[in-house]
Amino acid sequence: MDRILNGKVALITGGSGDIGGAIARHLGTAGAHVIVTYVGGKTAADTAVSDIVADRGSATAMQLDQRDPAAIE
User: Fold this and answer.
1) Structure pTM?
2) Angle at alpha carbon of residue 7, lines to 51 and 23, rounded to 5°
3) DSSP state, residue 70
4) CA distance 44 to 7
5) Out of 8, 29, 34, 56, which residue is the most buried by the measure of CB atoms under 10 Å away?
């Protein structure tokens, strides 16, 4: 895939889930720096990040509970 999203950042909420993880991997392949968020699925989020990095992409995992306004800050 062409890296058409180079220089862009993608924040994927729920990136530790099946659908969110697939979206994160796809955007990483397209060249975006992907921030994979999770509430309790750190292992799955870390796996998505590892997959993106293994495909020469850039990604980080971040715990985020969108139900908590303080966490959003």
Assistant:
1) 0.88
2) 40
3) H
4) 25
5) 34
Q: pLDDT tens across 60-69, in order?
A: 999 999 898 9
Q: Using CA atoms, how far apart are residues 15 and 61, in angstroms rounded to an integer?
A: 9
Highest mean pLDDT among 1-15, 32-46, 58-72: 32-46
Q: Is 31 left (phi over 0), alpha (psi -120 to 50) or beta?
A: left
Mode of pairing for the β-strands spanning 9-12 and 33-38: parallel
Per the document, the length of the chain is 73
The per-residue pLDDT for range 21-40, each reduced to its tens digit, is 999 999 999 999 999 999 99
The enclosing H or E element of 32 equals none
